[in-house]
C-alpha cells in the first residue's frame, strides 16, 4: 500500500509545498496506488472462497471502500493537509496514545503489504523463468528481494507523481492484457462463461461467511485510495477536485477488477485458480497458449509488485523515523545516515520486521502466505477506516471558513458497521494467523511506546506522532460550547 510522509518544516520558516498536482495527475496517482499486488496475486484465493462469482467480493470491497472514501473526502477537503488518518483522529479525539496507535498501524500495514508483494515477486520470478521452486527457495528469494528494497531505500529514492504515471501505465497494461486475452477466449468459445454465476463455497462455511471472507481478502486490492489525502498540500484546489477525482479513480479500478475476475474464472477452472500465487499469469497462458504474451505477464507482475513494495517500505520507514523524531518512539530509530541522509535505523528496523513476517508465515509450506499477509494488511487498514469514519461524525461541530465536501450522517455510520463487519472474527471469517500477526505488531508498537515513556518521560511520549500542533479537539470544543450554553 503507497503514501507520502509529512514534510518536516522549520518552525520559523513556514514554507509551503508547491501545488503542482492537477486532476489528471491526481487521478493517475490514485489509480496507480490502488492497482498492484492485490489483484495480481489474490484473484485465485478469492475464487477459492466463492467459486465463479469471484467478481462479487471485489464489487462489495469497492462498495466498502467507497463508503470510507466519502468520509476521507469530507476530511481532506475540510482539512487539506498532510498526515491523513493520524491528523483526523488527533483533531477528533486529541488522545495522543490513540493517535500514535493509528499512525503505527498505518506503518505496519505498509510492512505487511510490502511483505505480501515480496512473496508475489518471488512466485512470479519462478514462473517467468519456468522454474519449479520449493517453498524454502521462494522464501529466500522473497527475503532477498526485501534486502534489495532496503538497499534502494538506503540510497534514497525521490518518488515523484510523474514517475508514478509511468509505473501506473505499466501496471495497467498487464491488467488490460488479461482482460483482452480473456474476453477473446470467451468470444472464441474457449472459455466457460457459465462459471461466472456459480457459487462454490468451502464445505464448512455458509454462503454469507464465504462472501465475507472473500471480501475481507479482496479489500486488500482496493486499499491505496486513502494515501492520496497525503498529497492535499501539493494539489491545486483540493476542496474542489478531490471528490470527483477520488471517486472516479475508485470507479475505474473497480471496473478493472470485476472484468479481470470474470475473465479469470471463465478461462481457468476454479480448482486451478485456488491456491495459485500467480493466477493472472495462468489466465493468460491458458487463454493464449500459442502466443508469447503469456511469457511477458510474469515480469509485468514483478514490476508492479516491486513498485508496491518499495513505496510501502519507504512510507513505513519514514513514519517510524517521524515518530522517533517526535519523541514517541526510541531515539535510535530517528538516526540518519550521514552519507546518504536517509533514516538508516528505521529502514533496517522495518526490514527486520518484514523478514520476520516472511519467515514466520513461510514455516508451513501449505500455508497460503499471500492470503495471510494480504489479509493482515486489509485487517489493519479496515480498523483504521472504522476510526476515520467515526472521526467524521465527531468533527461535525468543528466549523471551517471554506466550503468542503459533506458525506452526510448515514454513509459514515454504514462505513463504520461495514468496516467492523470485515474486521471481527465471527463475521469476517478471517484466519487466526491474521489476528496473530496484527496483534504481534500492535504489541511491538505498544512496547516501543512504553519504553519511550519510561526513558523520555511522560510529556515526551505523549506528543502527537505526526508533529501536529496540539489544539482543542472536537470533543473538547463541544464540551466548551455546552458549558458556555449553560
From TrEMBL:
The keyword Cell membrane applies. Residues 464-486 are annotated as: Disordered. Gene3D superfamilies: Amino acid/polyamine transporter I (1.20.1740.10). Pfam families: AA_permease_2. InterPro entries: AA/rel_permease1 (IPR002293), APC_superfamily (IPR050367). PANTHER family: AMINO ACID TRANSPORTER-RELATED (PTHR42770), INNER MEMBRANE TRANSPORT PROTEIN YBAT (PTHR42770:SF11). This is APC family permease. It comes from Curtobacterium herbarum.
